[in-house]
């Protein structure tokens, strides 16, 4: 089936628009899925370069799933999948100025526990949960990004929350 | 509404003010908020879309210039083709050589359909390119030529050159022996700066430096084409030399005189009949010893 010529991505403006639409989410997805050490930024760029090279073959509607597939494969090619440990950045969630040493210690401990607990989530749970909590995305957005139903997103996020709480509270 | 639904609505940022009150009243409200707040710390690093887009477009541009290097494989292919063509051209312009071994005959068709029949242990060399304008063959040995009409046809031998315009003739150039027999048309022989014209039926023979021209032939083509060697008052040594070429054997002539003249023929097909046709008229005996034939007087 031939696509109408005016409808492909082989046009810098159209390509840029697609980039702006998908790049940030793709980057976040790769980061949550594979961690930082595999250079999610580079993979996003490589995936888009590949999209450009195949711009005549990939319709704009297929661009998103094409990008996710390509970027994912690039990651998998890089190294055997290791357990992903996301580092907690020390942004202070609360703005107390005079925290007691006990409080600071407690906070540090909590952070470590959370890091470990998040690392123990399944890949699918981790992506969905952090897309929601860290990226602030609503269920519907996540569902469309991951090509799954809203119900499945709910299940993954709630499952993640339950697992995290169990692990943190129990210890 | 149960607790799970409430929490999910909170996660999806979808609580009504009234539901928010209920949520805040949950026993684990504090710990949920804490978990949520801390989770924000795992946010992906800042991603500057504008910057990243520019980088991507830049490297696409860079790849385009790299793709100009596609010229390189094309050049490689071109180089290979040039070598192949060069090799082809070289080999086609090379001289063609045809040679026969002991007891072997061969016929060759030249580019203008002239033909050459090679007798045993003979060699011709010629160049196919521009053949029609330069018909020159180098001969070492014995050959019978049927020349189509056309430009001057030259046969070069170490001893002399034979020039013709379309005819049939035989050249035999061996050690101390140079013979040209013309069967049709006219040939001109350049031998030691002297020119000799042969007409059909004429022959020209140089034996040990002496020219003998008064032999005339009434055959249509040389006998050797019919696998027979014919001699007319020639020294036995020449006869035996030809015999050796046809049968790949050696003669031991230490007990006989080899300058005896011989007139006769021998076949190329049966060594015993051939030996008899030479030895009987000359009253000689022969004994075969492997690849050597010893001749002796009766």
Give your account of this protein's structure.
- The complex is a heterodimer of chains A (171) and B (298).
- With 171 residues, chain A is an all-alpha fold.
- Chain A has two domains: 5-78, Rna Polymerase Sigma Factor, Chain: A, CATH 1.10.1740; 101-170, Winged helix-like DNA-binding domain superfamily/Winged helix DNA-binding domain (Arc Repressor Mutant, subunit A, Orthogonal Bundle), CATH 1.10.10.
- Helices cover 67% and strands 0% of the residues of chain A.
- Chain A is built from seven helices and no strands.
- In chain A, helix 1 packs across helix 5 and helix 2 (40-53) crosses helix 3 (60-78).
- The N and C termini of chain A lie far apart (59 Å).
- The relative contact order of chain A is 0.11.
- Chain B is an alpha+beta fold and 298 residues long.
- Chain B has four domains: 1-37, no CATH class; 60-93; 96-226, Jelly Rolls (Sandwich); 227-298, 3-Layer(bab) Sandwich (Phage tail protein beta-alpha-beta fold).
- Chain B contains seven helices and 18 strands.
- Chain B has helices spanning 3-11, 17-24, 29-39, 49-67, 71-93, 236-247, 271-279, and strands at 95-99, 106-109, 115-118, 123-127, 135-146, 153-156, 160-164, 168-174, 177-184, 186-191, 194-199, 203-207, 210-212, 228-235, 250-252, 261-267, 284-289, 292-297.
- In chain B, the strands form three sheets. In chain B, strands 1, 2, 3, 4, 5, 6, 7, 8, 9, 10, 11, 12 and 13 form a 13-stranded mixed sheet that branches. A three-stranded mixed sheet of chain B has the order 15-18-17, with helices on one face.
- In chain B, a hairpin with a 2-residue loop joins strand 8 (168-174) and strand 9.
- Chain B is rod-shaped.
- The model of chain B has no long low-confidence stretch (mean pLDDT 85).
- Classes of the chains: A mainly alpha (171), B alpha+beta (298).
- Chains A and B meet through helix 1, helix 2, helix 4, helix 5 and helix 7 of A and helix 1, helix 3 and helix 4 of B.
């Amino acid at each position: 089936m031939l696509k109408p010529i005016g409808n492909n991505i082989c046009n810098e403006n159209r390509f840029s628009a697609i980039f702006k639409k998908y790049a940030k989410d793709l980057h976040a997805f790769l980061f949550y899925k594979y961690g930082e050490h595999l250079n999610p930024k580079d993979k996003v760029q490589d995936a888009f370069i590949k999209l450009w090279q195949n711009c005549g073959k990939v319709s704009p509607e297929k661009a998103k799933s094409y990008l996710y597939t390509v970027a994912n494969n690039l990651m998998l090619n890089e190294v055997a999948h290791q357990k992903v440990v996301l580092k907690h950045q020390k942004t202070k969630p609360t703005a107390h100025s005079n925290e007691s040493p006990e409080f600071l210690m407690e906070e540090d401990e909590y952070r470590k526990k959370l890091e470990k607990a998040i690392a123990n989530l399944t890949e699918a749970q981790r992506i969905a949960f952090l897309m929601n909590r860290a990226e602030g995305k609503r269920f519907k957005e996540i569902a469309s990004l991951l090509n799954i139903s809203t119900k499945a997103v709910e299940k993954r996020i709630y499952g993640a929350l339950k697992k995290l709480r169990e692990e943190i509270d129990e210890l | 509404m149960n607790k799970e639904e409430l929490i999910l609505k909170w996660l999806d940022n979808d609580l009504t003010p009234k539901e928010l009150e209920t949520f805040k009243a949950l026993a684990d409200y504090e710990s949920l908020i804490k978990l949520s707040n801390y989770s924000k710390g795992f946010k992906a690093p800042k991603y500057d879309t504008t910057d990243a887009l520019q980088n991507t477009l830049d490297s696409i541009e860079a790849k385009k210039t790299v793709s100009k290097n596609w010229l390189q494989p094309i050049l490689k292919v071109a180089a290979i083709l040039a070598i192949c063509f060069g090799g082809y051209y070289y080999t086609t312009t090379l001289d063609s050589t045809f040679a026969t071994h002991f007891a072997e005959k061969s016929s060759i068709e030249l580019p203008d359909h002239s033909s050459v029949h090679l007798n045993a242990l003979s060699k011709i060399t010629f160049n196919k390119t521009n053949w029609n304008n330069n018909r020159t063959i180098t001969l070492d040995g014995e050959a019978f030529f049927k020349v189509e009409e056309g430009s001057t046809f030259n046969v070069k031998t170490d001893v002399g050159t034979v020039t013709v315009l379309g005819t049939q003739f035989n050249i035999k150039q061996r050690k101390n022996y140079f013979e040209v027999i013309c069967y049709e048309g006219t040939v001109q022989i350049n031998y030691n700066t002297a020119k000799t014209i042969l007409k059909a039926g004429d022959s020209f023979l140089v034996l040990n430096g002496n020219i003998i021209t008064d032999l005339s032939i009434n055959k249509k083509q040389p006998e050797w084409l019919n696998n027979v060697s014919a001699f007319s008052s020639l020294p036995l040594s020449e006869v035996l030399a030809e015999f050796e070429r046809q049968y790949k054997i050696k003669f031991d002539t230490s007990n006989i005189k080899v300058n005896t003249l011989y007139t006769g023929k021998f076949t190329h097909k049966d060594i015993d009949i051939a030996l008899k046709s030479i030895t009987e008229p000359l009253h000689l005996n022969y004994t075969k010893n492997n690849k050597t034939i010893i001749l002796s007087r009766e």
